[in-house]
Amino acid sequence: MTGKKANGSCNVAKNTSNDSDNENRNVYYAMEKPTYAYDDIKAIADYLMERTPVRPKIGIICGSGLNSLADSITNTQSFDYENIPNFPVSTVEGHVGRMIFGYLENMPVMAMQGRFHYYEGYPLAKCSMPVRVMKLMGVQYLMATNAAGGLNPKYKVGDIMIMRDHINMMGFAGNSPLQGPNDPRFGPRFPPMTNAYNAHLISVAHKMAKEMGISHEVHEGVYTCLGGPNYETVAELKMLRILGVDAVGMSTVHEVITARHCDMTVFAFSLITNIGALEYDSSEDEANHEEVVMVGKSRQSICGQLMCRVIKEIAKECQTK
Ligand SMILES: O=P(O)(O)O[C@@H]1C[C@H](O)[C@@H](CO)O1
Ligand SMILES: Nc1nc2[nH]cnc2c(=O)[nH]1
C-alpha cells in the first residue's frame, strides 16, 4: 500500500487484482466522490493485523465525548488515525482520532475513539469505511454509541436511548454508504434492514440497566441521522417527532447500514446530551457542541459500564457456543 494522501483520500493500491476488480476500481475512481475499493480496505486491515496480535470479535465506536468507553480495554495497542495509511482523520472536538486494540471482558475488541461525519466533508462510504476494516479483521459485533438530541418528551439530558431502529433520512435524499458498485465480498446489492438492531442484545441491555439500577433513565427508541453540522430548526424537530423519531444525531445510521450489509450483529445506543426545542420560546438552551461534549464526559462512566456489561454477556454466550 502506498502512503497517505492529504485528508485521508485513497491511493490506488498495488495492482494484484483480477480483471473484474480492475473494472470495479475504474468505476470507483470515476465516481465524483471516490470511495474505497475492497483492496484498499483490505490493505488497511492487513496493515493493522501486522501490527497487533489482537483478532477482534467486537468493534466499538465511541460517540462525541464518549472516548473513555475505551478506557477499560486492557493489553492495548493504539494507532492514531493519521498514522494509518489511507485512513481519514477526525476533525471534531470530542473525537480523539485513535484506534485501540485489546481485551474487554476477555473479548478481543477494537475501538474507535472518534468517528467520521458527513459534515466533515467525507462521503458516507468513507465515514463508514472503518466498519469494513473491522469486518476484514474478523469483527462480528458492532457496538456503536453517539450523542443525540432528545425528541421524545420522556427523555431527559443524560438518559440513554438504546437504538431499536433508525430512519435513514439521508437515504431518503438518495445518499447511502452503499452507493456505487456493490462488492459481493462485503454483502448483497440490496440488503434488508428489518432487523438492523439485534433484539437479543437490546433485551440484554435492558436487563443490565436493571441490574445497574438505571432502568428509569434507559429508553428504547428510534434514531435519525441528519447531515449537520447545524442543529435543527423547531419546524424540523416537530416534523421528525411526527415521523416517530425519538433522538436525532449526525452519525451511526450509515455505520449500521454498512455493518448489516456485511452481516455484523449490531447494538447501539444514544446518550441524550440535549433536548430538542419544539417551541420557539422553549426554556431549553440552544443546542451547542460544548454542552454535548460536556454531558458526554459526565455520563461516560455509566455508558461505559452498560457497554461492558453487554459485552460480558456476549463473551459468556460465545463461551457456551
Ligand atoms: O459522533 P456523534 O454522533 O456522537 O456526535 C454528535 C453529532 C455531532 O458530531 C456532534 C454534535 O454536537 O455530536
Ligand atoms: N442533529 C443533532 N445532533 C446532535 N448531537 C447531539 N445533539 C444533537 C442534536 O440536537 N441534533
Automatic annotation (TrEMBL):
Full protein name: Purine nucleoside phosphorylase
Cited NCBIfam families: PNPH, PNPH-PUNA-XAPA, PRK08202.1
Pathway field: Purine metabolism; purine nucleoside salvage
Family membership: Belongs to the PNP/MTAP phosphorylase family.
Keyword check for Glycosyltransferase: yes
Keywords: Glycosyltransferase, Transferase
EC number: 2.4.2.1
A single GO molecular function term of this UniProt record: guanosine phosphorylase activity
Biased composition (Polar residues): 8-19
InterPro entries found in the cross-reference section: Nucleoside_phosphorylase_d, Nucleoside_phosphorylase_sf, Pur_Nuc_Pase_Ino/Guo-sp, Purine_phosphorylase
Species of origin: Glossina brevipalpis
Binding residue positions for a purine D-ribonucleoside: 232, 274
Record: residues binding phosphate: 64, 95, 115-117, 147, 251
GO CC aspect terms: cytoplasm
Sequence ranges assigned to domain Nucleoside phosphorylase in this UniProt record: 57-311
Segments of this protein annotated with the region Disordered: 1-25
GO BP annotation list: nucleoside metabolic process
Catalytic reaction list: guanosine + phosphate = alpha-D-ribose 1-phosphate + guanine; 2'-deoxyinosine + phosphate = 2-deoxy-alpha-D-ribose 1-phosphate + hypoxanthine; inosine + phosphate = alpha-D-ribose 1-phosphate + hypoxanthine; 2'-deoxyguanosine + phosphate = 2-deoxy-alpha-D-ribose 1-phosphate + guanine
Domain of life of the native organism: Eukaryota
